Description:
By secondary structure, chain A is mostly helical. Chain A is 78% helix and 0% strand. Chain A has six helices and no strands.
Amino acid sequence: xxxxxxxxxxxxxxxxxxxxxxxxxxxxxANLQEFYGxxxxxxxxxxxxxxxxxxxILPWLELVCGLLLVSNCWTRAALSWxxxxxxxxxxxxxxxxxxxxxxxxGCLDLRLVGISDGSAAALFxxxxxxxxxxxxxxxxxxxxxxxxQKKAGAGS
Amino acid sequence: xxxxxxxxxxxxxxxxxxxxxxLGYAFxxxxxxxxxGYAMAxxxxxxxxxxxxxxxxxxxxxxxxxxxxxxxxxEVLQGAxxxxxxxxxxxGTPMGWDEIKPLLxxxxxxxxxxxxxSDYEAGHIxxxxxxxxxxxxxxxxxxxxxxxxxxxxAVYCASTTCRVSSAEAAILAQRYGYTDVHEMPGGFAEYxxxxxxxxxxxxxxx
Lengths: 156, 206
C-alpha cells in the first residue's frame, strides 16, 4: 500500500512538472521576440548571440522535456534536463532579485489559465521573489524524482 | 567501467538537445515573431559590434531587407550591449498608474510606450510617446534631443506578461544614461482597467 502511494505521488509530481514545463513553453513560443526581450531584461553578462540562441532553444527544451515527463518516456534524461533548467532559472532570477532589477520573471503565460493582466495574482506569480522560490522547489522535486529513478534503475 | 544507465541517459540528453535545437531554429525561421539577429551573416559587412560601436544607425542598404522593419534593431542594440559599468544608473522603482497619472498631468514625467507602432496607433495612454523597443536604435536620437537625461521617464508595454518595458527601461538607464527611469509593470492593461473611458479616447491620438 505504501509503495503504491509513493508510486502515485511520484507520478503526480512527474505529471505536474511536465505540464508546468509545457505551459511555460507555450507562452514563450507564441512570441519569441518578447521572450528575447525578457531575457535581455535580466541584464545577464552574456553575449547577445548566446542570449539569442537561448531564446530560440529554451522554449523547445521545456516543451520536449514536459511532453517526455508526461508520457513517461526517456524520463531520466527529461528529469536531468529539468533539473538543469530549474537550476539555471534559480540562478537567473536569484541574481536579478539580488541586484534589485525591476523585471517580471517571464516564466509563465498567465493568460492561458485565465489570470488577467495586472491583477494582484499575476503580479505575485510573475514576481522575481516567487519565481526564485518556485524554481528552487521545482528543481528539488526534479532532483528527488531523478534520484529515485536512478536508484530504481540501479536496483533493476 | 561504463555505467549503462548513466551512458544511456547522457545519450538521450544529447538527443533531446539536438532535437530541440533543430526544432527551435526551424520554428524561429518560420515564425513571424522569431528572433532574427543570428540570421545576419557577418560577411554582409553589417555586424552588431560595428554598428553599435559607432552608435550610429546602420546604413539601410546594409540591412537585410527581410528584417528592415522587423527586429533587426533590437538585435543591434542587444547584440552588442556592453556590460553595464558599475556606476551606470539602473531603473528605479516600478510605478503604478495612480502614481504616474498626476506626474504626467503636471508635465513632470515622460511616459514611453515600448510597444510596436501599430499597437501604439491602435490605442495608447493619452500623452504617451511611442518609442518601440524594436526601433530604439532608430528613434533614440530624436528622443534624446527632446528629453535631457535627468528627465523622469516611465516605460510601459501591454501588460505584466510583456517584458519589453523592463528591458527598455534598463537600456534607457544603463546604455543611454537616463537617471530617473521607471517601469510601469501593469502596462496598458492597468491603464485600461483604471480608466476604461480614457482608453477609448486615447485611440489613434498621440
